[in-house]
Design a protein that fits this description.
Number of helices of chain B: 12
Helix content of chain A: 25-40%
Strand content of chain B: 15-25%
Number of strands of chain A: 11
CATH topology of the largest domain in chain A: Peroxisomal Thiolase, Chain A, domain 1
Helix content of chain B: 25-40%
Strand content of chain A: 15-25%
Largest sheet of chain A: 9 strands, mixed
CATH architecture of the largest domain in chain B: 3-Layer(aba) Sandwich
Distance between the termini of chain A: 19 Å
CATH class of the largest domain in chain A: Alpha Beta
Order of helices and strands of chain B: EEHHEHEHEHEEEEEHEHHHHEEHEH
Radius of gyration of chain A: 19 Å
Shape of chain B: globular
Strand order of the largest sheet of chain B: 5-4-6-7-1-8-13-12-11
Largest interface: A-B, 10 and 10 residues
Number of helices of chain A: 14
Structural class of chain B: alpha/beta
Oligomer: heterodimer
Order of helices and strands of chain A: EHEHHEHEHHHHEEEHEHEHHHHEE
CATH superfamily of the largest domain in chain A: Thiolase/Chalcone synthase
Radius of gyration of chain B: 19 Å
Number of domains of chain B: 2
Number of domains of chain A: 2
Chain lengths: 388, 351
Amino acid sequence: MRDVAVIGIGCTVFGEHWGSSFRDLFIQAGALALEDAGLSGEQIDAMYVGNMSAGRFIEQEHIGALIADYSGMATRHIPATRVEAACASGGLSFRQAVIAVASGMEDVVVAAGVEKMTDVGTGVSVDTLAGAADREWEGFVGATFPGLYAMIATDYMHRYPLTREQLAQVAVKNHFNGARNPIAQFQQEITVETVIRSSLVADPLRLFDCSPITDGAAAVIVAPLERAREFTDRFVKVRASAQASDTISLHDRADISRLDATVAAGRRALDSAGLSHRDIDLVEVHDCFTIAEICAIEDLGFCRKGDAGRLTEEGITALDGDLPVNTSGGLKACGHPVGATGIKQICEVVQQLRGEAGKRQVPGAEIGMTHNVGGTGATVAVHILEAI
Amino acid sequence: MVGILTYGVYIPRYRIQVKEIARVWGANAEEISGGLGVFEKSVPDLDEDTATIAVEAARYALARREVDPEAIGAVYVGSESHPYAVKPTACTVGEAIGATPHMTAADFEFACKAGTAGIQTCMGLVQSGIVPTGFAIGSDVAQGAPGDALEYTAAAGGAAFLIGNEDPIAVIHRTCSFTTDTPDFWRREGQDYPRHGGRFTGDPGYFRHVQGAAKLLLSQMGTSPEDYTYAVFHQPNAKFPRRVAQLLGFTDAQIRPGLVVPRLGNTYSGSSMIALAATLDVAAAGDRIFVTSFGSGAGSDSFDIQVTDAIESPDLFRRAAAPTVEELLKDPVYLDYAQYAKHKGKIVMQQ
């Protein structure tokens, strides 16, 4: 297996793009990534694109071909493949690209992610997203994603000493970081009070505990590490790529407050990289809800179960803390165009490792981790990247 | 010069508070009122509708100025809640004010700006000499589906403006419009309540069109915001007109007299016209008023209006002969949600 490097990144602004279509967004992200890597389209050997539900959001399937076509690569007949794993589609798209390069099958590969969610009303969005859970056992009986994560939060708060204020602090921190990220959907800082006084969505989760509905696209370009210098001197090494699965419905889990796929993928990633938690300088975790960030920090092994709320309250996970979590603003403040999120996480860590994260730069960051979750934890992708 | 000869407003006396609606739906009243800047909205009485409101407003306008009803050559009623799908409200109004039969009449619909479209139509008819004067009326008993965001603001009220060119109390220097096919809000034939695209009604709807028309008028007139004493922007809530005023360079002080939405709600076709009326209620000769309406679907009409000496000349116009907007907002009767549901015909009675 060959070592793999990320040689270029590109990301659209995340938000409500009323004036841009699905294809406008991925073309923009792809062009930014090519420009960043200093490549032209002719140098691309293959493409993977993470997308959860263009079929329901824009009534378009066959996304791989669409992207190849509108990127001007269909006439070169390169392989273009859609990858779907609900909200983890982006993370898996990146992993497929890494596997393609590591195996020697391809050399220069685009891993992209895109979602256009605002062409439908909120009701359709919510129901489409519910397709990431078990439709027969959960969706059909009325469970939505806020509802499922509310059950996790309720169970968690019953068993561990997490306070309402600590949970709110996750959103406060992520909005603080988002306000320092030019692509973030939300650019305003908020207070614990903002979160606690916001509308109740699914008890105990309030409006500001939830990530928003977002349009956006992100793309990265990977290549063999040994060839990376041919293209750029700003490349980042992929230290580990891990993926794990779990039961799709929440009620089949032995412990709903623990995402075992996160535990498994996190452990595999660290083991394969030969690293320990102490080596990780920053981590982008999948905070689709504030409770999800709390669980992720613990399930990835950064602290004991029940401690992440205190860590957050004490500022350990803040931009200037010992373990900065979600420097991009996370899904909460950056926005969550589901298929694009996993790729955006890679873009964020690459920016940090290249020292190009501006006002949210973690000084001296050398190793970063990304954690991308599908559904309530039925699919998890964890990646570790290292500055060269 | 073409302008406003007289005007009148009617607002039903009943109100329901945003917090009462929020109570029923288990919503966060503080967040809703804080976000919209609206605290209560007007509710029609059991026997009030768009036609009765339009008639009241027109009668108040005629109370302020002696006008030969025979000289009213046109009546246009803009509304998105005409009592009949087929049968013009404008004929009922024309009959009630004694303007029939030598007049033209039609009902207009353009979401919240059908009334200002009526002003433009009357301006054309007057300036071309086809009619001596014409009534442009915006009147609505606006609909918001139970539990929908619109229910917190959809209100009832109307304003009538008589357009003519003999001794107007305010001249209209110029009007222009900005119109596109933007589906931000709609109600299909047979549907009881409108539907909307949530925040899509904001940037691509309201803000694009209001700014489009406003900037066009400023450039056509060669004016800037500080040339105007007052400004009026369509007010679906208090946040949008404040924000668009700021974006265009108008001040809070300029829009303050017309900003009635916190205590009135959104009267749709009546909204920007009642706001203009509230501004005329306090305006003095020489004051210049910038007006931009907005209707979903979508379009905006802008007007450059200047108050003349006639507004202070008792021989021509008596402002005190009809209630001001402030007087109409005073002394409301508050309803609870059950009474509100009855007033709005939401309770299905036994046949």
